[in-house]
Structure formats: structure tokens, C-alpha cells
What does this fold into?
Amino acid sequence: MPWDLDNNRPIYLQLMERIQLDIISGTYKPGDRLPSVRELALEASVNPNTMQKALAELERSGIVHSMRTSGRLITEDKSMIEQLKGELAREQIGAFLEKMNRLGFSTGEILSLIQQTVKEDD
It folds into this structure.
């Protein structure tokens, strides 16, 4: 998946979000080694210093940790990954509900539309 970055938001935050998404979606599994800073920066077409900052922030959060000789590894704490997944899902749902409310939909109407859409997709 391409790294579509928006110049209106800090790049390192977007890099963090993308790596987090790759972790919770299973692209990177618990205990996997991340590619090097240079490899990730090249893939994302960003300065290695920017990628380093994003990875340092992920380390601070605990989702990634450094091993001196092995590079950076994804945490093996599956509950931490599930917690992150839930947090990101709640953020997305909140943003969706806010947009639907601005369109004039009530909570009941939103739920009805969701149920209808799910039935159509099945």
C-alpha cells in the first residue's frame, strides 16, 4: 500500500499511524523485526531523520522496542496491540459519527443505515 502523506499534518505522525496500522492489521506480526530506518524511509519517500522520529515515538509508546544487534521489533504483547486496535477503531467511529451528525442524521438513523448497508454487503 502506498504511503499517501498529507502535507497539512506532521509527517512523522502520519508515519507512526501507518506503521501502527500495519501492526494491527497483521502486516507486521508480534515479535517481527521492522525494516531498517533507511529502508522504511526509502519506501515512504521521506527523510530518514523523520522516520527515525516516528520510530522513536513508537518505541516510547511501547508498541516497538529496540534490540542492539537486531534492530527494532514489534512488541509481543498481543493485548497491547488489541488495545491499540480498539483505540484506533473508536477514533474512526467517533469521526464517522461526527460527520454523520453534521449531515443531520440522528443516532437511530445512523444505526439503521449501517444495518442496511451491512445486509446489502452480505
